[in-house]
């Protein structure tokens, strides 16, 4: 049983001579490191040839960890092929989007449909599990690493056709779903179907396809093919170990793979956080909440973050003093039960030798980065088990949907400038900066716990979602959606109804036309007594029971609704429709009005640099995290008595207190 948040990270001692290991463990103890992720890229080490295994190095790594009282997240090592496998089985190498069969190199270089890869990877996972299932250092299993990429080889083409047979049953259903009467594409044999690539339907690039239904299904197939690899390795582990939890590390808002399809097969979610340069704090927060939502609100692991810099970008800014601590506690605030780094000691060579590490090449313990990591380790020790297993008591949900993401961004029209992530983040950011806790959920999620459901860019509507959204409003809740929502069904086919299709009754509007313009065209929008601006898409809305909240201020549709509110049901429910891409202040204004009617505006909503997050521990203890992302001291007032678990200081209700630049407080509320 854990008694504190797990702390540590990726450790690759096989890259250094054994005399370095002594220094590593001495420094790990100083930094409070208790958890090591090992074996992630160890395939060529543990299986030097097809018919031989050598576990001497892994034995030494795990035995040393156990001797030092540390636990291990043990990887199966199957993320990158060893050279001998590519030479012996050339078909394990991927074929890219341009139709080129790759030779050996890089990582994530395997074809997920290759029987040779599946056989070799599953055998290795089984051997590793058989050897270490009872090892005292074992804490969790880590299958593969950062699954991603796609293959377009003949093996994948055949596997895709088999997947389509299972999905559709017959060609009549497939032809109907893909609208193949368009451009003479009607198929008469499954063997005629080709994966959508630069050689077939994507003549203008990955996001330009002639047949969205085909491309949607290939993205789903790729998700399932890689998931099949994961499941095969998990099954191999479970033949030797029925209890130790199994995970793989995701990459947050990663477009190629639908993580909701993976979620049921994980024992706990984990992910690697590397936010884009200059991203606002809410970008990482959204990804944290997305990962927490994969397992219905259960805690996740922050499997990787850099302690200082990354090494995969054109420029790699250093985390400023205090930023690492802030990022670590932000993860805990959003549900992390582990905070791990990539990497613990810097690689000596290859492409990650300049990636940030807790311990640099010289092995010093007096660097700023090491001292910050050690200080965080001390704080996590003081925090103890207070946050373990805690859940977020959110009354606001944000729907995040990979199908809508794929369908929108591979569609020729209405606008290629609309980006799903950016729009979803804008609404999430508005809610979080207003002080609302937010659950990020799938289209299929149970919506009954929520008073507010935000569903921006709900482009593709499937199943009974429309009915369940109506139920939210019918019991007095509020549902908000936006432009380009309710456009297509699960196959990417336009609804044979007025836009927004199945959302029309709830929203009380009919979208008659839509105007798409380049990003430099800005239209004014009048929002109450103030004005804001909008870009990209301007839907022309005809109210059908809804009332205008904001109107366009220019062009021939000046005076028509840009935002509407529709009373729904007998309990005061509402459907809000935002018909254009408002700028962030406009989104903020709309979302705050929605939250305010349900009493969901946070106490510190007027202090935008201070992020708040609530968690409730299994014993009922209520925790409030305060994170100051600003470079200035935040001056706050306590809204109830509380004790800071990091400092032991108590604050009385109504008393003033301060939070320094990049400051963190974890308050146990009275």
TrEMBL record:
Every copy of the Glycoside hydrolase family 42 N-terminal domain together lies at: 10-382
Catalytic activity, reaction form: Hydrolysis of terminal non-reducing beta-D-galactose residues in beta-D-galactosides
Full protein name: Beta-galactosidase
Cellular component (GO) terms are: beta-galactosidase complex
Q: What is the lineage of its organism?
A: Bacteria, Bacillati, Actinomycetota, Actinomycetes, Kitasatosporales
Q: Name one GO molecular function term.
A: metal ion binding
Keyword annotations for this protein, in alphabetical order, are: Glycosidase, Hydrolase, Metal-binding, Zinc
Q: Does the keyword Metal-binding apply?
A: yes
């Amino acid at each position: 049983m854990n008694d504190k948040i797990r702390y540590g990270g990726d450790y690759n001692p096989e890259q250094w001579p054994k005399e370095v290991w002594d220094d590593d463990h001495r420094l790990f103890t100083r930094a409070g490191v208790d958890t090591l992720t090992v074996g992630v890229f160890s395939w060529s080490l543990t299986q030097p040839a097809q018919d031989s295994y050598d576990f001497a190095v892994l034995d030494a790594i795990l035995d040393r960890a156990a001797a030092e009282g540390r636990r291990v997240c043990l990887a199966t090592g199957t993320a990158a092929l060893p050279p001998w496998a590519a030479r012996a089985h050339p078909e394990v190498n991927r074929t890219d989007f341009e139709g080129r069969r790759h030779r050996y190199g890089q990582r994530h270089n395997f074809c997920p449909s290759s029987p040779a890869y599946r056989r070799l990877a599953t055998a290795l996972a089984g051997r590793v599990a058989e050897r270490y299932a009872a090892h005292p250092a074992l804490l969790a299993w880590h299958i593969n690493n950062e699954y991603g990429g796609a293959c377009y080889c003949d093996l994948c083409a055949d596997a895709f056709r088999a997947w389509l047979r299972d999905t559709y049953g017959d060609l009549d259903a497939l032809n109907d779903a893909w609208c193949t009467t368009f451009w003479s594409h009607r198929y008469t044999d499954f063997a005629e179907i080709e994966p959508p690539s630069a050689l077939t339907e994507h003549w203008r690039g990955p996001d330009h396809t002639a047949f969205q239904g085909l491309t949607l299904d290939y993205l789903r197939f790729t998700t399932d093919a890689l998931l099949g690899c994961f499941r095969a390795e998990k099954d191999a582990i479970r033949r030797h170990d029925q209890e130790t939890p199994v995970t793989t590390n995701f990459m947050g808002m990663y477009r190629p793979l639908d993580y909701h399809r993976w979620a049921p097969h994980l024992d706990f979610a984990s992910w690697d956080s590397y936010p884009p340069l200059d991203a606002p704090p809410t970008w990482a927060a959204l990804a944290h909440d997305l990962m927490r939502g994969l397992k219905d609100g259960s805690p996740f692991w922050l499997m990787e973050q850099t302690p200082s810099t990354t090494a995969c970008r054109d420029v790699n800014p250093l985390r400023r003093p205090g930023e690492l601590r802030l990022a670590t506690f932000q993860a805990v605030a959003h549900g992390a039960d582990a905070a791990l780094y990539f990497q613990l000691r810097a690689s000596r060579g290859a492409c990650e030798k300049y990636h940030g590490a807790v311990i640099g090449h010289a092995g010093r313990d007096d660097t700023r980065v090491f001292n910050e990591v050690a200080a965080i380790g001390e704080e996590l020790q003081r925090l103890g088990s207070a946050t373990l297993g805690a859940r977020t008591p959110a009354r606001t949900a944000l729907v995040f949907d990979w199908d809508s993401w794929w369908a929108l961004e591979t569609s020729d029209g209405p606008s290629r400038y609309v980006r799903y992530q950016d729009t979803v983040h804008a609404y999430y950011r508005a809610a979080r900066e207003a002080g609302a806790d937010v659950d990020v959920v799938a289209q299929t999620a149970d919506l009954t716990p929520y008073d507010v459901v935000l569903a921006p860019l709900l482009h593709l509507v499937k199943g009974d979602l429309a009915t369940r959204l109506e139920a939210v409003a019918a019991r007095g809740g509020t549902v908000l959606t936006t432009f380009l929502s309710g456009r297509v069904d699960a196959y990417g086919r336009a609804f044979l109804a007025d836009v927004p299709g199945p959302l029309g009754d709830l929203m009380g509007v009919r979208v008659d036309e839509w105007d798409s313009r380049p990003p430099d065209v800005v239209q004014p929008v009048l929002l109450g007594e103030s004005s804001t601006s909008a870009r990209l898409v301007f839907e022309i809305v005809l109210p059908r029971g809804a009332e205008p909240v904001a109107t366009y201020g220019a062009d021939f549709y000046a005076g028509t609704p840009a935002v509407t509110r529709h009373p729904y049901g007998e309990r005061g429910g509402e459907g809000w429709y935002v018909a254009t891409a408002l700028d962030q202040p406009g989104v903020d204004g709309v979302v705050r009005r929605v939250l305010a009617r349900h009493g969901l505006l946070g106490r510190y909503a007027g202090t935008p640099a201070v992020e708040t997050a609530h968690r409730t521990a299994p014993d009922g203890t209520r925790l409030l995290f305060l994170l100051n992302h600003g470079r200035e001291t935040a001056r706050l007032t306590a809204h109830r008595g509380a004790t800071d678990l990091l400092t032991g200081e108590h604050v009385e209700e109504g008393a003033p207190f301060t939070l320094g630049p990049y400051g963190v407080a974890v308050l146990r509320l009275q």
